Amino acid sequence: MGKENSKVEILPFAPIEDEPMSSLTVEKTKVTSTDTSPPIPSLVSEEKTKEVGLQPTGDTRSVEERNLTRHHPGHFRDDPVGFMMQMGAFYQGTGWRSYKNYIGTRILYEGYTEEVKERVLNSERVLYMIAYLAEKQANLLAQTIPNATSKMIARRKKLLEKELQAVANGMVDKLVADLNSLRFIRLFGFFVNNILVRMYHQGVHISEREFLELRRVAIHAAQNSQSLIILPCHKSHIDYLVISYMFFRLGLALPHIAAGNNLDLPIVGRILKRGGAFYIRRSWGEDQLYGSVVKEYLEGLLERGHNIECFIEGTRSRTGKLLPPKLGILKIVLDCILSGRAKDCWIVPMSIQYDKVIETETYVNELLGNPKERESLWGIVTNTRLLQLKWGRIDVRFAKPYSLQGFINEQIERRKSFDPNSEQQKITLLRALGYQYNSVSVVMPTALVGTVILTLRGRGVGRNELIRRVEWLRTAILAKGGRVADFSGMTVGEIVDRAITVLKDLIKERKELLEPVFYAEKRFELSFYRNQVMHLFVSEAIVSAAMYTKIKQGGAKSTQRLHISTLLDEVTFLSQLLKVEFVYQPGEIEINLENTIKGLIDDQVMKLEGEYVLLSDRERAIGRENYDFYCFLIWPFIETYWLAAISLFSMTPTNSPQPTTTIVNKTTSKKPVPIIWFNEQDFHNKCQIFGKTLYYQGDLSYFEAINKETLKNAFIRLEEVGLIMVKRSRNTKVMTTIALSPDYIPTRNSEGAIEPKGKLWDLVERIGKFRREGKNRRDNATVSSRVLRLAEIVGTPTTADVVMTNLMSRPVKAGKPEAKL
């Protein structure tokens, strides 16, 4: 039997700090499955049927915090003696640094990695796949060889099996984490501790109560050879270091970290692998052997109770907004539990929030369409300039862990027709699991200050007013069930001053006035912090934007109200338009709208007069500041979708020679309609240039509206509803092409200019109703002529707008729209 199956020793509870801990004890009762909570509150679900939901885990506001790096010197010159003592303690393994009695299945012994590789390569699944693929290839080759004998085919099959075995060996070598050396982990722990202490000088903070619950579940899981599935949000490369450091620091078995193979770089890739990382391709398509190797490795880890860490968003959030989960790893975990190979595992949603994320400047460059910089965690941790800066603090939170098997059983019990083996219901269940990191996210002071500054009218804000609005936002977040970083003993003013210090390159101060005035110096970069609170107020933001269609008209109160049925129509349209961006609360839209309006009435933002909704008298008296807050949150996203829609006019066919094909339009006539196909990436780049031009000419209010991530989501949505057609190939060398659906192709007047009418223009107008009003956009005729003229320039074909011969040689039929906006 391998050493990893040795009995787990549970030691008495040890303090997580070097100083005494509060008198909290760990119950060693059996852990049972818990009710877990639904995806984040929002407005409307994609489907009006009941979806899998998770119940709230209780009040989490009053938490006692611990700073894991307190009293740890980060600089030799600041405290030479303390620094050397700290280094010696890590090297010798003093106290918690010994890491010999961690909770969980055994790792970190000589030969661990080779044992895992041998099990994967000799598994029934991998051997079967090798034999199957070899036989398949041998039979295909036999068809090309005249008079092939059975012996020849058998020899060929045997040779192919050896080749595939070598391929599998290479896959396993790249895949399996190298958790062999305890000494390396101690040195790595010292290295990461030093980095975190120097960069985030105010510490790494956790909730003591949450840790105690996690530790209790970890003990139960270890005693039953069950895994912890760590599901953190992903905002920075530093996340990898923080999580591994925390598990080392708190005495839990290090997780095996699922990482993209883009991080398998020289030096840093090897270091991360020795710290628990295993590298997976972003996609493996039809590579059946690779899929078998990955599944066997992951299921083997689950079967033996090893902890697994999966960044479920799939990539770092460049916008600061929580991303929809990628369900690939979770699906393997779920299938493993359903098959019975692993009896159970424990889901641990986790949130890592930073006062300041070090990559935000890089994110802005990427979102503006500049070439993506090569991933370089090594570049971050060895950058002496970054290490000298003061980035504030890190807050880590854990949701209450819950049993996956218990959750599945609960769904079967609650929904008699629920079949976890159904692929569709399995996806529904996975989505519910995947969004749990939303509920545990903590809003940092920098996010509070950044959000307030970007949601106020005017060029800047005085300190007193800033403090007042931050206090309001903090209260609003807590009322929505959100979490705010706890700064015990600090006043709101001190918190604001501290946040402005951390964001000093993004927020500037004018001191030569009657009072200090703060203003956004880098609005695009600051929007990263604003978007961190967006998920809490999506419902209110959508309703407020819908109301804006009337409120912006001004005049008497009677002209600024909206009938409840009209409001429902507008909210439904916006919710459907933005469904790729946000997560909506399960349930009927009518009920969700009713609950949202009730909340806004309780907050004295809106009121009801009969069947009409309008702003409350109190909200008008305070200058619409709370109503404006919700609008300012969502306007940049509406701007992006308007930009995506207006850019489609550039696809309008002209009389000049261009790469075209024909399509039969069955919905209107049988006459072929000319279609222009564009290179997708080139078109997206042109769209960003188009957006920059509109911004500087005053037709676009928000520079962050041109970011490529939100634009990409907008084009995905427009494809889903049938406005555009996309041709993709599994061959990565074949360019993806994009074209306007024939039903939405605009007409031209006698002079050849695009006319502002038709189905596409109607959609642009519909989206435009919700946009923030500006003086450049009051005259619709002027706007249409100016914007459409620029769209013509965008549509000028370039050498990149090439269509493959197979796309040009046959007509293409337009598919039916999947949904209507």
UniProtKB/TrEMBL annotation:
InterPro entries for this protein: GPAT/DHAPAT, GPAT/DHAPAT_C, GPAT/DHAPAT_LPLAT, Plipid/glycerol_acylTrfase
**Key word Transferase present:** yes
| Compartment(s) | Endomembrane system
| Keywords assigned | Acyltransferase, Membrane, Transferase
List the biased-composition ranges (Polar residues).
22-37
Q: Which residues form the Phospholipid/glycerol acyltransferase domain?
A: 228-355
SMART domains under this entry? PlsC
**What's the protein called, per UniProt?**
Acyltransferase
Organism per entry: Rhizophagus irregularis
